[in-house]
TrEMBL record:
Gene Ontology MF terms: translation release factor activity, codon specific
Family: Belongs to the prokaryotic/mitochondrial release factor family.
PROSITE patterns the record matches: RF_PROK_I (PS00745)
This protein's encoding gene: prfB
Post-translational modification: Methylated by PrmC. Methylation increases the termination efficiency of RF2.
Keyword line: Coiled coil, Cytoplasm, Methylation, Protein biosynthesis
Superkingdom of the source species: Bacteria
PANTHER family from the UniProt entry: CLASS I PEPTIDE CHAIN RELEASE FACTOR, PEPTIDE CHAIN RELEASE FACTOR 2
Keyword Protein biosynthesis: yes
SUPFAM superfamilies from the UniProt entry: Release factor (SSF75620)
Residues recorded with modification N5-methylglutamine: 202
Name of protein: Peptide chain release factor 2
Length: 327
């Protein structure tokens, strides 16, 4: 186990060093291109190199933010849960919009994403969903999304076209790899099986293949209905439970290490982190960092990196990031 950990750390360091050297080489090449273009009075070459330098700065800034991803589980894959709040169809529709947003973000980030569990709403939307997002630093990037997300819009379900406010919560926790040993006593859990609901074809509704595990001491509940096999769903649900317990321990350690910052790491239902306003004006605002985006549709299509970068810096430094508005 220790050897595997060292090999993984070595690979990550080698990849980081190679990326930095590549940035340095691209910087040198484009600076030389600008000098050559100026000597030859070729404005086209100069403009092209300047554009490349701007793109290089964006990439370098992202690399700098990634240096903040030094937590114990930041490099791991991650689970991401979405739960609708009170309000029936309105909140369930909002929860489905959030699920789509995170799927789009994962795809834009070149992560692999799987839907492990989804409970459909009565009329529209979803009551809950669990995503598995796979890729290097997936948890590190997504972890600051935990909290309550608020939507303000003219409801498509209101015949009088009134403005509604809806809430949904997001919970992010890391996949536990083989190097982390989490012990869970079977006497501390209750396991329920049920018929799956939501998308997935007719086969998902024919047997009690879905599995829900409740950890009685903490009240943590996880569920999986991805596979036809109850055995496979049970194994996945056990892994999810261990991951939730591990994430709770990480939060506890962080709070103990920095009691003054405990409030900003609170990811309970009452902790609202971001507001999405579609009417009467267009604005997405992160309430922790003050970062704003004036095109909500781009955010809902997965443009979340600016918010995540600012939240990471805020979480580490305990103050507002220097990252500017992301619109």
């Amino acid at each position: 186990m220790e050897a595997q950990g060292l090999m993984r750390e070595r690979q990550q360091l080698e990849e980081s060093i190679a990326a930095i050297r590549q940035l340095e080489q691209r910087l040198t090449d484009n600076v030389e291109l600008i000098a050559m273009g100026e000597e030859e009075n070729d404005e086209g070459i100069v403009a092209e190199a300047e554009t490349a330098l701007k793109e290089l700065k964006v990439e370098a800034d992202k690399r700098q933010i990634e240096t903040l991803l030094s937590g114990e589980a930041d490099s791991n894959d991650t689970y991401l849960e979405v739960h609708s709040g009170a309000g029936g169809t309105e909140s369930q529709d909002w929860a489905e919009m959030l699920e789509r947003m995170y799927i789009r973000w994962a795809e834009r980030s070149r992560f692999k994403v799987e839907v492990l569990e989804e409970q459909g709403g009565e009329e529209a939307g979803i009551k809950s969903a669990t995503l598995l997002i796979k890729g290097h630093n997936a948890y590190g990037w997504a972890k600051t999304e935990s909290g309550v997300h608020r939507l303000v819009r003219i409801s498509p379900y209101d015949s009088q076209a009134r403005r509604h406010t809806s809430f949904a919560s997001v919970w992010v926790y890391p996949v536990v790899d083989d190097t982390i040993d989490i012990q869970v006593s079977e006497s501390d859990v209750r396991i329920d099986t049920y018929r799956a609901s939501g998308a997935g074809g007719q086969h998902v509704n024919t047997t009690d293949s879905a599995v829900r595990i409740t950890h009685i001491p903490t009240g943590i509940v996880v569920a999986c209905q991805q596979e036809r096999s109850q055995h496979k769903n049970r194994a996945t649900a056990w892994n999810m439970l261990k991951a939730r317990l591990y994430e709770a321990e990480l939060e506890k350690r962080e709070a103990e290490a920095n009691a003054e910052a405990a409030s900003k790491t609170d990811i309970g239902w009452g902790h609202q982190i971001r507001s999405y306003v579609l009417q009467p004006y267009q604005l997405v605002k992160d309430l922790r960092t003050g970062i704003e985006h004036t095109t909500p549709q781009e955010v809902l299509d997965g443009d979340l990196d600016g918010f995540m970068e600012a939240a990471l810096a805020h979480r580490v430094h305990g103050k507002e990031s220097d990252v500017e508005d992301v619109d």
